[in-house]
Amino acid sequence: MEVSAMEEALSNPKARRKGGLRTIPFIICKSVERPCLEHMPNSGMCLLCLTAILPVYKRTPECAARLADCVVVPWQLPLLFTSFALMSLGSGGIRPCTLAFGADQLDKRDNSARNVRTLQTFFNWYYTVLGLSIVFAATVIVYIQQARGWVVGFSVPVVLMVTALTLFLLGSPFYLKAAADRSAIIGLVQVLVASFKNRHEPMPPETADASSFYTKAGSKPRTPTNKLRYLNRACVLRNPGKELSADGAACDPWRLCTVQQVEDTKAVIRVLPIWSTGILPGVIVGQQMFPTLQAKTMQRKVGGLEIPAATFGVFSILTLTVWVAVYDRALVRPLSRLTGHARGLILRQRMGAGLVLFAVAMAVAARTESVRRAAAIAEGLRDSDPRSGPPMHMSAMRLVPQHCLTGLAEALNLIGQIEFYYSEFPKTMSSIGVSLMALGLGFGAVLGSAIVGIIGAATRSGGHEGWLPSNLNRGRYDDYYLVLAVLGAANVVYFVVCAWAYGEEGQNRVAAADDAATVDDGKEEQHKASSEMERTFQSSGMQEPEIQTELEAQGGDGEDGAIGVRGWQGGIRALPRIFETEDAHSSVTNNEARMQMARKRNVTSSRKTREKLAEELTVTPLSLTK
């Protein structure tokens, strides 16, 4: 199998001393500053700060006093739009790469319960910290902009950006880095083109061995899976003398691809139906401007403090943050005992629950808006301008439940999506997998704008005012929310079908783990021993929580635990034969007692002593049978 650039980096003894938990604060700090820069559409980068500093961008006195219309001069727009474009490019680089880069520092390239648990904890706490930074951006930064003006309000995010960038660069010596190998996108396109070009070529039988398929020189030979078998045409070796060069590379990569390229393409195609279910959450998340307009018409004072209308969105972020922390620290272990999965709930269960909550949130929003509109009409505010008229007596806190439901849905579905794509995609495509969630939200934002336009145009026909006028009290925003709730319910049904058709999770990462190069050192040997022990526990009927607890008892991934694991292997392999004899039980009991005593001693013993002890504890079938 092919060895990715990251796997080659891991095989370097110097590189293996890098990475780990110590790199995570430097990586997360770079992500924390992003919400402070772009949470509001008008907060951002250095160029945006210039639009508040340069005199040519200042409003005229008449415009500031609302005595005349504020007219934008065309030559003022290029700098503003350039700043927005740079913000988008920067976010496109930070969002997908930061999360994948952080996971690469922790991922041990196996599917053990400990590794799965470590990655889940990283994803959860990444979004916990990110949520807190969004709360800071939506409260403190917004307050500074309102109280101190745009110059100070834009300067603070710029300072935060420079600080975060400096901290990120300071952690560079500790990062586990991999040189760029090849473009994953080009590899996907090559597989599709090669499959089409070879569509008339005969396929080898399903029982064909690895020699019938092309793998990169120096990689372990493998056969492609039978799923989406049509794509296997891209990696079939028909005439090695003509198709391969002297160094073993394909002469025409657009006609002959490696097995790993084919499997990467299959992983992307298989996940696309489930990915499409994440578009509608983008529609729902993107319509948060409507609750802001609702809050402006309602009573927003709590005690002597008036809450800004835009700040109510913080409740969804707080809910997300609290849920992630509670789930990771308090709920995973009880749920894992019930479900038998190290994550508690499998990823598709979490994603499906999030989609259900998105639909419920829209139903609650429809009910809240119906009550708000009826109360406004009863107070005689139907024709009052919500932007300048008096607020109604209903408290804006009535909007909190729908925000909390949306935040909980994001915590379950959006974070679940990221974990799902990262765990399902091969290691070489981790950045693409992480970025798929953001891509779905982007499509959802575009689709949301289209839905608003279609509903507005359809309901204004015949001279009617329509559902979505600028005056909320004259519109029917509750019906708009109901449309989203119905679409959300249909999306749940569609997701159930896609999840059922997808099959078992984790198959692609198993293949990618098999693709790793052999690393001849104690750490790699330790991981292999631990994985073998875990597989043995699974074959004996133990559940994931019990396996994880047992591995932790043996020392887990620690150096001392590795020797203990190797010492256990001989006895574990013999267990099926042990129970074939009547006298075996006493031998097993004695052996377990000796191993428990050995585990206490091997923590402080030398390497040679521990290896000798492991050899002593190896139980052969002959010693346990008559």
From TrEMBL:
GO cellular component terms, semicolon-separated: membrane
What PANTHER family does this protein's entry cite? OLIGOPEPTIDE TRANSPORTER-RELATED (PTHR11654)
Q: How does it sit in the membrane?
A: Multi-pass membrane protein
Q: What protein name is recorded for this chain?
A: Protein NRT1/ PTR FAMILY 1.2-like
Chain segments carrying region Disordered: 517-544, 583-626
Composition bias, kind Basic and acidic residues: at what positions? 520-535
| Residues that span the membrane, as ranges | 124-144, 150-176, 305-326, 436-460, 480-502
Against InterPro entries, the record matches this protein to: MFS_trans_sf (IPR036259), POT_fam (IPR000109)
Q: Which UniProt keywords apply?
A: Membrane, Transmembrane, Transmembrane helix
Q: Which family does it belong to?
A: Belongs to the major facilitator superfamily. Proton-dependent oligopeptide transporter (POT/PTR) (TC 2.A.17) family.
Q: Which domain of life is it from?
A: Eukaryota
Per UniProt, subcellular location reads as: Membrane
UniProt source species: Panicum miliaceum (Proso millet)
A Pfam family this chain is assigned to: PTR2
Chief place of localization: membrane
Q: Name one GO molecular function term.
A: transmembrane transporter activity
Q: Where is the composition biased (Basic residues)?
A: 597-610
